[in-house]
Amino acid sequence: MKPYKKKTTELKKLLNQGNLSFLMEAHNGLSAKIVEESGFAGIWGSGLSLSAAMGVRDNNEASWTQILETVEFMSDATSIPILLDGDTGYGDFNTVRRLIRKLESRGIAGVCIEDKIFPKQNSFIDGDRQEMAPLDEFCGKIKAAKDSQSDNDFCVVARIESFILGWGLKEALNRAEAYHAAGADAVLIHSKKSRPDEIVSFMSRWDGRCPVVIVPTKYYSTPTELFEEIGISVVIWANQLLRSAVTQMQNTALTIHSKRSLVDVEDGIASVSEIFRLQGAEELQEAEKRYLPKRSNPVGALILAASRGIELGELTKATPKAMITIAGKPLLHRMIDIFNDMGIRDITVVRGYQKNKISALGLKVIDNDEYENSREVYSLYKSLDALSGPTLITFGDILFKKFILQALLEEGDDITLIVDVDYAERRRKGRYGDYVICDNPYDKTTLDNKAAVVSMGNNLQDKEINGEWIGLCYVTSHGAEIVRETVNRLTTNPDFKRLRMADLFTEILKNGHRLSTVYITGHWLDIDDMGDYEEATVF
Question: Which residues are catalytic?
């Protein structure tokens, strides 16, 4: 556990430590967590971003209590200090007093108040037409804020809008001095120019009376080194997370709408497991282990990857098939990433050819040293001890979209196979395929396409075939027991080492067990030859 650090103290240190610090905008608990994980020492609770996330204008249309509720979630999700953009203080000095007490009670480290008239308007919208608060009235707000705080380290930052409203340097300096005298812990000097000239001119006359904060939204191309040279204490990146999120959400929504499918976006967005991680799901799981009765075994994965893949030529001369690089990442690692995204961590690989090159963090390995003279069932036989609970069994040379795995895991039958109904092109190539006949053909007009395998093999008649097993299946604990018993029984077969998975499944059918199917329409790839490899690079 990290040592506790009082957030107010940490913010005060950032303002006064004498070197440049940075605050990053956040607008909810999730974005605040991302800011902290990215390495920032503090968070800017942006008024623009908070209101935009609620779908309202940055004109105090969101009440201060609604803002307060949101930043409370942000504070709860993080351990770094938050400086809240408090607009004009949401009213007069009395509102400010209540605001300070409420912020302190929710663990907010400081507030920035700007010297404009309530209700405020965003500084970059018709700035010349906005009004500044009377100097003595705003100084009263600052004094009220400082008198109301119970924590001596709570920070009040006075934001000066003189440049924004066209009042010039003299007024900016005059107000900065008055706000400092009223008790402000720092001043924020704001500018809407594309160059930092106004900021530089202010700093040349300020002489370090108190820390200065800036928001370079408009003059973003300025080298950060300049801010250090002129003595800026804190730079606020004020709205970039919200804006980047908007761009990505628009692109994703348009793609889904035009394609009427998730297939083109799912692999390019955060996985559901990443959202769970940011939410702290792992901590809850650990707590459940302490406080709840033990649950059933988690799902494991068994990858059969002993073969060389001689059809790939030079690619597998010194590299096992499962470790060939696809778009910069080994094939096996891509499969492991998908499993991890689905929360599957217990992964075992049966390796053979160039076995020492099969590796990945946390991976369990089993050796099939007879890989040259054996096929999948023998590799499965070597790994029966790993087949002790709910398990995904897969070939090590396939790629598939995550939604396929999700659909497979949602089925509750003892043994379930993924079957592709778009098999015709692969069959025309004349390569080996595990084709199936099912009791219920695929029907795209039916949402529930429940089916079971009737027979399986490479020599079925075209008119009878309902699809091709892609090399991916799921077994429950009882299903794993069926597979283990069947494999052990097959060891008496003189050709045992040469048996394929289709032979195993046929034997399971002979013994009266059901093989359920989940139908898919493509979105996977079997990497058998150079043509497949080239296709995989853009899969």
Answer: 58
